[in-house]
Amino acid sequence: xxxxxxxxxxxxxxxxxxxxxxxxxxxxxxxxxxxxxxxxxxxxxxxxxxxxxxxxxxxxxxxxxxxxxxxxxxxxxxxxxxxxxxxxxxxxxxxxxxxxxxxxxxxxxxxxxxxxxxxxxxxxxxxxxxxxxxxxxxxxxxxxxxxxxxxxxxxxxxxxxxxxxxxxxxxxxxxxxxxxxxxxxxxxxxxxxxxxxxxxxxxxxxxxxxxxxxxxxxxxxxxxxxxxxxxxxxxxxxxxxxxxxxxxxxxxxxxxxxxxxxxxxxxxxxxxxxxxxxxxxxxxxxxxxxxxxxxxxxxxxxxxxxxxxxxxxxxxxxxxxxxxxxxxxxxxxxxxxxxxxxxxxxxxxxxxxxxxxxxxxxxxxxxxxxxxxxxxxxxxxxxxxxxxxxxx
Length: 392
Hints:
A hairpin with a 2-residue loop joins strand 16 (376-381) and strand 17 (384-391). The model has no long low-confidence stretch (mean pLDDT 90). Strands 12-15-14-13-16-17 form a 6-stranded antiparallel β-barrel. A 5-stranded parallel β-sheet has the order 3-2-1-4-7, with helices on both faces. A 4-stranded mixed β-sheet has the order 9-8-11-10, with no helix packed on it. It has helices spanning 14-25, 51-65, 75-91, 98-117, 164-168, 179-188, 210-214, 243-247; strands spanning 5-9, 29-36, 69-73, 122-124, 129-135, 141-147, 170-171, 223-227, 258-263, 286-292, 297-302, 310-323, 335-341, 349-355, 359-369, 376-381, 384-391. By secondary structure, the chain is an alpha/beta fold. 23% of the residues lie in helices and 29% in strands.
């Protein structure tokens, strides 16, 4: 009987290394592929996660496991689908999430197609998440994306844009393990990546200096930093009446605030940002509470609890709504109780989805800090991720 073939994305890290080992132990015909994505050493900080070193580690792991290995150059696709998108979003005053995009556009699209062309039955990654499936009443197979068993490492949020078709072709070999268990397996198998630190920074690029990265295309432009006091009357208003009002970004008139400094371009900043403002002498640290790219103005407030940082609701435009579980989609006028998060590692928050003709609104039980346009909101029931969307 022919063994099922699995192509695994070997990143040169411990997680994908152990995933490859477990697949081989389970009897699969395993092939290791390293993805070389867009890389610009002029904006990489020190020698964090250089692709050449990672590629070499991935090759050594494949050699140790006795599996075929090759490198695929996806630089062109990564530049077109991720890097150009990031520049475009920042130019609009939005903050994209390259890791979510990398999974949607590269790992589970371009990479998946390459794997299938090599005769793969499945692709696999070292993500800390799980999957399941069941048969619907119509006899159709429904795939479920589940949180990883290790809740401190759960990476389901990064896969929030996957489709049923993609899920049907993917395996997550370490999803049921804790990080400590993965390290132990790697050590026991004498894998070169056993003690390697987790990579940080942009997906498959490494840790980059974001201002240097953005300044390749977005030019510096001096503008005003306006501080907004925390006791404005508008913050003492009772709950606003409409979801549309609750989900709007807070734009402030300059005369309501005080000029406290200058910046080099509103598009270099994001809501909730503290570093890089270069304004001192305040009682509490300043945080960005809003950006106005059109007028090149940044609005800031003192302290983590500044009311301008918090909103009760957010909106996802109709074109940006994505359901993994399309059988659970809600129609105009319907609502759904969920738990949601607006960033990786954020504890899930109680929320309610409202579907309207204008889009999908997410109303939180507790106001959320630093809701940021361009980021992804993902919604769950239990430990299953049902869908996601780009925050308007």
